[in-house]
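Hey, can you fold this one?
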Amino acid sequence: MTRRHAVVPTELGELTMVADGDRLAAIYFPAHWHLPPESDYGEATTPDDPLFVRTARELDEYTAGERRAFDIPIVTNGDDFSEKVWALLLEIPYGTTTTYGALATRLGNPRLAQRVGQCVGHNPISVIIPCHRVIGADGSLTGYAGGLDRKRRLLEIEEPPEVAASRLF
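Sure. Predicted structure:
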């Protein structure tokens, strides 16, 4: 199989999915920040590609609160530092958040928080690699390639029931 892409309808909207062989290589939201050149997407295919169907099903199960972890095989092609950051993102437990500074500290240098933020912002596989779980040091929702409303929604999906019940609105 070759590198290929399609726009796939999901509960999160029409997502551009990119596959490299039998592994998912990217998920992009409409109006996504930091898009690669279209030539990196590979050939256009249909949304009924088995990998894209499986990915959409898992995303829909996630948004329905029926899935906490993804089983989709993935591949990323970042530099060494980006790969380390994305690996740390995969370790953030469902329903929890961390900060850019905490990730930088885990990488051995708290002064790398800005560089960590750049890697988080360039995460090619949104939601599956949970970059939405990274927030500002003051607890604020910082930038998200899919938009802050979408980041807020993803965090609300993962919110423990007792926390959701205590919210006033």
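Strands lie at 3-10, 13-20, 23-28, 43-44, 98-99, 134-135. Let me know if you want another pass with a different chain boundary.
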